[in-house]
Amino acid sequence: MEGVRWAFRCGSWVPTRSEWTLAARCVQQEEKERIAQFVFAKDAKSAMAGRLLIRKLVCEKMGLAWDGFRLERTARGKPFLPRTSSTPGVTHWNFNVSHQGDYAVLAGEPGRQVGVDVMKTSRPGSSSVQEFFRIMNRQFTDLEWRNIRKAGSDWDQLDMFYRHWALKESFIKAIGTGLGFDLQRVEFHISPNQMREGQVYRQTRMYLDSEAEDWTFEESLLDKDHHVAVALGKPDISTAGEDGGTVCEAPPLSFTLLSFSDLMSKATPLLEEDPAYWERFQSKKGKANIQQAISSVCLRGPAFNKSLLFRRSRDGGPAGAKMEFRLAVATDALQKHTNM
User: Fold this and answer.
1) Torsion angle, CA of 59/65/66/72, rounded to 10 degrees?
2) Which of 5, 31, 46, 289 is the most buried (most CB within 10 A)?
3) Is domain 4-338 in CATH 3.90.470.20, yes or no?
4) Strand 256-258 vs strand 4-9: parallel, antiparallel, or unpaired?
């Protein structure tokens, strides 16, 4: 059975009143309230899209009615569908979502561990690229840093940085490990060095504690600025070849870009209409980015509450070793070192 790769461009979605109120009616009450807590409209849109993507997957691939199941979260905050919600005889799907930059994405697989991460290449605010790298030094191995720094211009180095980051995040999200996971335990041997839009690559290999791991990583570009990585564990159910022993890996999957109509094609309202929810959305601030968040930490000093950044994390829950949180921690350490 073929997996799923979906993307929704949140950055260009300007919800109408009817779209936003309908979307809010089609998610669970606690998720609606959680989305309302985001300070920035951009983050609220991304989180909403993530929830709708998950429900669409469960409906279309597992055959459950939109109002016929309840999503839950692990202790680490990762969304999942309890197996008791599955229809007998229907394969249970694993799924993961990510939203950053202009996109929300979902990767789903039947009977296989899966993690996904999307990262937008962008300049580090008021800091230089090399200062940004210095702050993030502990997140990559020596080999990975060599690959990043030999990419070319500062922009090309940033692009390679975010490519490596998406790979690491996708693996951590697939295994459901929390923030304490040491990213230096995982090392990626990138291939090819250059990627093209419209293609999916599987050549990159991962080493865990210096040992090669039997994981597959699908890499692609949603556009010239957005890297997306999908981590795939070993299939639980293999398709054997004619000799009865060769495992046949399904071909790599490209991301399908969905419209809002596509996102809502199976949706059924779960909640009553809430006119005030639209007003709350309208009052939210404009977009913010990771680099602005770092600058905010620097300006506010070591006492700054990092939970404010943590609340802006992507919809994979804390299990995704969130970049915003790691950057806040790194910047906080820098403050202590320089007595800012």
Assistant:
1) -80
2) 46
3) yes
4) parallel
